[in-house]
Model the fold of this input.
Amino acid sequence: MTSLDKPTEDTEQDRPDEARDARAVTEAALFEAFGGVRGMVETVLPGLLFVAIFTINKDLHVSAIAALAVSLVLVVVRLVRKDTVKHAFSGVFGVAFGVVFAMFTGNAKDFYLPGMLYTLGLALAYIVTTLAGVPLIGLILGPVFKENLSWRTRNPGRKKAYAKASWAWGLILLAKCAILFPLYWWANTAQLGWVLVALKIPPFLLAVWLTWVFLAKAPAPIDVFAEMEEAEKAEQAEKERKAALAGDAGDPSGGRHRRGA
Done:
């Protein structure tokens, strides 16, 4: 083996490790951004409780209060454990809107309508932002990867991956809406509720998996925070160098007369 062959061999051996590291970072970032298993439980549990109770006793008030109560309990548990509460809080707001809307109209199916409208709006947001060149999934995950918006102008391969992921999210959510909205008009409350609960996790997991696939193959993110720290260090070093030069200029002897004294 010649010396020219060795660097190539080393590079090929390093690539699997780099790819594994990139996949691990992507998995961790997606887990943090979307709440992981616990976030999914917090998303599903209130709606599941609502439809289960309503299926048994057809009591809108009891079902709504139970769903809201369990959402609040989930938030309290997170606060006690000093965990991130953003996913639990979003669940509380979603359930609260559903409860208020259903109580106002007197129609139990309206408990699900705010969430369905939110899903439709989110689907359109993914598609519109991608068409505008600022895919929403990049806006969401950029801070998590410490790259902020650097992918827009400095990392075209990553921007392309974010665009693919946003298209996936948008189309999957639109497909979900295409199932739910006809059921809102034609099915009863229990049927709509059980289908909605069944569609909570699988589309979400599919979208997260596709996001992971696209980003795992994309170029590594540019850590703009690390760049800012390096720039600050370089600026501080330059200031110290100028201060030292200014001190030498003020003492032409360079301190030699002190040493010779």
Notes: Confidence is low (pLDDT under 50) at residues 1-14. The chain is about 80% helix and 0% strand.
